[in-house]
Amino acid sequence: MKLRRFFLLALLPCAVLPAQITLPHLLSSHMVVQRNLPVHVWGTAAANEEVSVTFRGETRSVQATPLGRWSLYLKPGEAGGPFQMTVRGSATPAQPPLVLSDILVGDVWLASGQSNMEFPLSRAATAARDIPRADNDRIRLLMVKKRAIDYAQDDIETGGWAASSPATARDFSAVAWYFARAIEEREHVPVGVIDSTWGGTVVEAWTRMTALGANAALAPVFASWGQMTDHEVAAQLEDKDEQRQRDQAKAEGKPIPQFPWHPQLDSWGPGMLWNGMIAPFTPFPIRGVIWYQGESNSKLDRAPLYSRIFKTMIEDWRHEWSIGDFPFLFVQISNFKSTPEEDWATVREQQLKTLALRNTAMAVTIDIGNPDDVHPTDKVDVGDRLARAARVLSYGEQVDYTGPVFRQATPEGSSIRAWFDNAHGLMARNGTVTGFEVAGQNGKFYPATATIENTTILASSPSVPLPLYVRYGWANSPQCNLFDDEGLPASPFNSAE
Q1: Can you say how many angstroms the Cα of residue 438 is from the centroid of all Cα atoms in its chain?
Q2: How many other C-beta atoms are found inside a 10 Å radius of the C-beta of residue 466?
Q3: What is the distance between the alpha carbons of residues 156 and 195, in angstroms, rounded to a whole number?
Q4: Residue 18 has pLDDT above 90, yes or no
Q5: Side-by-side strand order, sheet with 436-439
Q6: What are phi and psi of 98, to 5 degrees?
Q7: If 0-12 CB within 10 Å is exposed, 13-18 middle and 19+ buried, where does residue 90 land?
Q8: Which positions ≥6 away from 59 have C-beta within 8 Å?
Q9: Residue by residue, what is the 3-state secondary structure of 346-391?
Q10: Which of 15-29, 104-118, 129-143 shows the lowest per-residue confidence on average (mean pLDDT)?
């Protein structure tokens, strides 16, 4: 009995030791905090502990909850730095204060999506030129580790913030890095960019489960997920068999067999990537989002639903951040031959429809893809086109950021006229206009002859005496060449959709 009591007494001090003050990994040295918005600082401490934070000469205190959670806001401020942040607790005098150094105040942009956003700077066509020039202390990078999980997280896995350098930029999102470079050069403020991406993923995985479930029109999302999970056992057996064949070929010195790509199941689960890779950022004020995704939603049964899911995602992200309708800038998927089982044209049209949401913009990339490679290496133009949109929507500049965008079609006897917005200097690159088709009442499209008349296109075909519909660039990898005088391409469209 005495021996048992001794062990209990020996363990007692460990049981009552106060908790250490902690911060989420997002809040660390070298970070950028959003200018002109309250600075949010939060973390954990001992139950009911008094926590104080000092930043830019201001100190504020708050008492932790009985569960040890605490959160406070500091006054907003202009761009600048570097600054130091000190976090102290009252219940743990033996613990030295947490000191975060080299903090900049500027603009924070979240970059997310699938592989074309994840695509690293080291693989870009311009890598050899730009990586050696990547040193820029006013651009700060945060790369998020992949995590798919069933419930929303309050922290991320990351190596922390770092200034842009050849070493830190090479594995970072090329699109995001070029975007940050363009913004920093134009706006002359520090720019923090967060790379939270996962190749080969679907839009519903990045959308909060509650938001998906609240919209009855999105029921097919859950039906599709159910079918995938039903096939999981068969997929696992297939993966094992493929690995067995690879191992056998390697042992026998034969060429390693190649197999079709299979999605990683958890990374496709509705809400799973929101939970692990987006939710932890919602307490952190940002300037806006840049997004490049859609290729994995191009299957014939998924493509028609894309706009509904995408709009739901954008509106829900804005709701969860609670800082207003921040700019959401996205890339329209490029041109790629793909297969007859995928419909990239419909996804592009669905993305075009998403522009109905306020404070959104779309970078058209139909001219800079690679028909034979789903990952085109020109990421400079993608980043720059997103930056042009940001200059208008976020920074109030008056610049052209979008090429011609279809407005409406009006039949004119044996022809049909397509009207556009942003169609100044409408022109065909490399010859006559290509990529137009027309259809009559039966909805069957035929190649059309198209001519430019001021800011409109007049299209006709001998196979369609009375055209009612017109479309442009309507293929996985179309041949189309309509631009404005700023060199920005027209978005593919279909007036029948």
Answers
A1: 34
A2: 12
A3: 12
A4: no
A5: 445-447, 436-439, 469-472, 493-494
A6: -80, 130
A7: middle
A8: 52, 53
A9: HHHHHHHHHHHCCCEEEECCCCCCECCECCCCCCHHHHHHHHHHHH
A10: 15-29
Check if the beta carbon of residue 328 is closer than 8 Å to that of residue 341. no
Residue with tokens 């040295």: 29
State yes or no: pLDDT of 10 exceeds 50. no
Annotated domain spans of the chain:
405-494
DSSP H/E element including 421: strand 415-421
CA distances (Å), origin 88, targets 81, 82, 100, 358, 412: 21, 20, 12, 42, 74
Beta strands in 114-262 (DSSP E): 136-143, 162-164, 191-197
* Residue (of 82, 66, 72, 62) closest to 39 by Cα position: 72
Give residue 233's pLDDT.
59
* Residues 273-325: tens digit of each pLDDT: 999 999 999 999 999 999 999 999 999 999 999 999 999 999 999 999 999 99
Helix or strand (DSSP H, E) at 292: strand 288-292
As beta bridge partners, residue 136 has 164
Residue 251 CB neighbour total at 10 angstroms:
8
Nearest-angstrom CA–CA distance, 291 and 273 = 14
No. of helices (H) and no. of strands (E), the chain:
12, 23
The Cβ of residue 167 has, within 10 Å, a number of other Cβ atoms equal to 11
Sign of CA dihedral 459, 465, 469, 471: negative
Q: Rounded to two decimals, what is the model's pTM?
A: 0.91
The helix (run of H) or strand (run of E) holding residue 293 is none
Strand partners, 437: 447, 471
Alpha carbon distance 32, 142 (integer Å): 10
Pair of tokens at residue 90:
């009252």
C-alpha atoms less than 13 angstroms from C-alpha of 258 in its C-beta half-sphere: 2
pLDDT digit string, tens, across residues 58-107 = 999 999 999 999 999 999 999 999 999 999 999 766 779 999 999 999 99
pLDDT tens per residue across span 108-128: 999 999 999 999 999 999 999
Beta strands 58-63 and 191-197: pairing type?
A: unpaired
